[in-house]
Amino acid sequence: YPYNLDFDYGALAQLQHFSINNLGDPFIESNYGVHSRQFEVGVLDWFARLWEIEKNDYWGYITNCGTEGNLHGILVGREVFPDGILYASRESHYSVFKAARMYRMECVKVDTLISGEIDCADFRAKLLANKGKPAIINVNIGTTVKGAVDDLDLVIQTLEGCGFSRDRFYIHCDGALFGLMMPFVKRAPKVSFKKPIGSVSVSGHKFVGCPMPCGVQITRMEHVNALSSNVEYLASRDATIMGSRNGHAPIFLWYTLNRKGYNGFAKEVQKCLRNAHYLKDQLRAAGIGAMLNELSSTVVFERPRDEDFVRRWQLACEGNIAHVVVMPSVSIEKLDVFLNELVKNRSTWYQEQQPPCIAADIGKENCACPLHK
Amino acid sequence: YPYNLDFDYGALAQLQHFSINNLGDPFIESNYGVHSRQFEVGVLDWFARLWEIEKNDYWGYITNCGTEGNLHGILVGREVFPDGILYASRESHYSVFKAARMYRMECVKVDTLISGEIDCADFRAKLLANKGKPAIINVNIGTTVKGAVDDLDLVIQTLEGCGFSRDRFYIHCDGALFGLMMPFVKRAPKVSFKKPIGSVSVSGHKFVGCPMPCGVQITRMEHVNALSSNVEYLASRDATIMGSRNGHAPIFLWYTLNRKGYNGFAKEVQKCLRNAHYLKDQLRAAGIGAMLNELSSTVVFERPRDEDFVRRWQLACEGNIAHVVVMPSVSIEKLDVFLNELVKNRSTWYQEQQPPCIAADIGKENCACPLHK
After folding, report:
1. Which of A44, A313, B201, B367 counts the highest number of beta carbons within 10 A?
2. Which helix (H) or strand (E) holds A50?
3. Residue positions of the PTM N6-(pyridoxal phosphate)lysine (chains A, B) (predicted)?
């Protein structure tokens, strides 16, 4: 991942002289003194406003990574519906399936469209086959490989259309990378607690650029009360997955959110989307199969044939495709260097052979193989 | 906790300019480039030597905290024995009981002795009542509140005495704080993979003094193969609890282990034990009930009556007792300031009233109430 590293390190690096540890519930004062819980709560309030939930109605914490957010959200869902079935699209992050195994939950994988979005026709069929049990659904706000955004409204419609009333389903939104970008994208469907969702998580070290892995998890207060138990020696409450939590991360997040503000993020998101479109268009112009989901800055394209090239550019690959996640630190100049190198190398890879067909991965209209171009 | 902060920050603080992220399995090269896996493996090798397991026979990783180590160790145990019962003493860390709930495991709480150690008579009775199912045991190498070290050899004897052969039990050693100190304590029972144990975890931010929460988890290679699944887009394997992991922590740990070495740690452990004895003796000399387990640097004593005093000294309290964990950064001078302040304040707390009896918590011989002194 091309991270977004432009902190004011002069001041913030000094923080490393202190061991800062957030233990237990961020909203309950505990007896451990060197913490950053005021910053943590400040960051959580910011996200609560973004996702439209009142201060007294939410609970949350700053996690160690996106996986912890998913583990927490799905655990809350299971505690709300102990016999619920977990539904998640095949292109969900692997931590979702890990959670199902850890928590001993029945898990139903739902098919995806070519775009990577959940296929709500298949979702409907699988819901109807399991009407007897409540549904716990992982909704992807940007899948890992294709950056596909599941249609939250259609997921809710499908549930209600299959006879699942609001007290019979729980939705966790995995916003890993894109949960923080989407609010700034025009026409994007809104992630909001005004809709019947139970929790949302995002990563803090991707788009926000926090230099240590971290994430934000927000859920409804009513749900977390069922989950938590009191820990006397901490004078706190145990509602988190992890115990000790990195105390520097909330300070970095708080600083960035306040320095950039909504407008700063909106500008960066626009830049990412613009540059992603540029990359996709240039790939296609060079005769290389490529796809870019409308709401995403993740460009999916034909997997480069040379593993050295893949390693040098740190491309994440799956089957016949690779992807580039265009973050604020990725400039047009950098994309041009990448494109030139790819095009130059590629001309040597396919002298005697044809480039592969990747229509099954990105659709016929995006494929540039001899058959589809 | 009085942490042990004496890194060479001049050089190491520079690391904060880089976003370092360890994804997936530390022993498998992945496609994400900015990592510190060489350091991670170096640290793991150090602990593998300490706990006597061959390089090719172990698997492990650097966790985000002690809780993650327990969550991992107990999950490995459950995957080895899916219908196993989890046994843990009442004074085990709360993350152990959280794991049982998360993983939907049957959990049997075992009584403790006054010292805080597991009561193997009660353990025996509970094992015999559940002979039909394999046993997964959490053994405490230093409990959270009293610093009590469960007798690993007696636990193994009890298991074998109850007819549990080695293919019917799994032992996870929670070494949170003391797992790293005990190897340097004379007469301490040894934690070693030459004994039939399955996993050991320790915290890295306590005795080692890493400035961000972290821990080390080591298990047997044969066990982790059952747990893991491959993650193609990372070109790695998913055998950890968390996804992205802090890449700075392994560098800090590696640096400290190499700079201090075995001899450095041995000296610091001796200092901690000496100072803990000093604190306990001074408390008793001042007529204050206090206990110190033989293998521990955790001094347990009468809970101060004034909550301001508790907060100012950040004392962790449970019921009628409080504790001080004597770490290398705690000097005799600091202990004297604490003792003087406690004795001065306490004389005002008990002018008209008698100090409470805490014999039930720390034993008659350690209590200093009017009845027992």
Report:
1. B201
2. helix A37-50
3. 206
Count Cα neighbours of A178 within 13 Å in the Cβ-side half-sphere.
Answer: 31
User: What single string gives the DSSP state of each residue in A234-270?
Assistant: GTEEE-SSSSEEESHHHHHHHHHHHHHHHHHHHHHHH
Catalytic residue among A296, A329, A331, A347: A296
User: Which stretch of DSSP H or E encloses residue A92?
Assistant: none
d(CA A123, CA A111) in angstroms, rounded, equals: 8
Question: In B, which residues are within 8 Å of A236 by CB distance?
Answer: none
Shortest CA distance from B23: residue in chain A:
A213
Compute CA B14 distance to the chain's CA centroid, rounded to the nearest angstrom. 30
Instruction: Report the SS3 class of residue A365.
Output: helix
Query: In which residue ranges of chain B is CATH 3.90.1150.10 found?
Result: 262-366
Tell me the nearest-neighbour CA distance from A222 into chain B, angstroms: 19
B257 against B138, higher pLDDT: B138
DSSP letter string, B143-202: -TTT--B--HHHHHHHHHHTT--GGGEEEEEE-TTTTTTGGGSTTPPPP-TTSS--EEEE
CATH number belonging to the domain at B10-260, selected among 3.40.640.10, 3.90.1580.10, 3.30.450.20, 3.30.1300.10: 3.40.640.10
Inter-chain CB proximity B243 and A65 less than 8 Å: yes
Judging contacts by C-beta atoms under 8 Å, the chain A residues touching residue B95 are 243
Verify whether residue B199 is a known catalytic residue: no
A322 contact partners, CB below 8 Å, separation of at least 6: A300, A301, A302, A303, A304, A310, A315, A316
Q: Is the pLDDT of residue B232 over 50?
A: yes
For A300-356, what is each residue's pLDDT tens digit? 999 999 999 998 898 889 899 999 999 888 999 999 999 999 999 999 999 888 899
CA separation for the pair A287, A301 (Å, rounded):
11
Nearest by Cα to B152 from B114, B192, B125 = B192
Nearest to B246 among A21, A234, A246 (CB): A246
Q: Which segments of chain B belong to CATH 3.40.640.10?
A: 10-260
Buried b (16+ CB within 10 A) or exposed e, A153-162: eebbebbeeb
Task: From chain A, pick out residues whose CB is under 8 angstroms from the CB of B1.
Answer: 21, 32
Nearest alpha carbon to residue B180 among B24, B294, B327, B370: B327
HSE, side-chain direction, 13 A CA sphere, residue A4: 22
CATH class of A262-366: alpha beta
User: Contact, A309 vs A343, CB < 8 A?
Assistant: no
The set of residues, in sequence order, having a beta carbon less than 8 Å from that of B40 and lying 6+ positions away, is B22, B26, B61, B62, B250
Query: Is there a contact between B242 and A75 if contact means CB atoms under 8 Å apart?
Result: no
From the list A21, A67, A211, the residue facing B243 with the nearest CB is A67
Nearest to A85 by CA among A141, A123, A111: A123
Whether the predicted pLDDT of A3 surpasses 80: no
Its pTM stands at 0.90
Specify the length of chain A in residues.
Answer: 373
What is the token pair recorded at B48? 């593998």
All residues at 6 or more sequence positions from A318 whose CB lies less than 8 Å from its CB, including other chains:
A145, B232, B233
Beta strand pairing call for B169-174 and B107-110: unpaired
Give the helix ranges, DSSP H, for chain B.
9-12, 37-50, 66-80, 94-102, 120-128, 152-161, 221-227, 248-285, 307-312, 332-349, 359-362
State the sign of the Cα–Cα–Cα–Cα dihedral B279, B280, B282, B283: positive
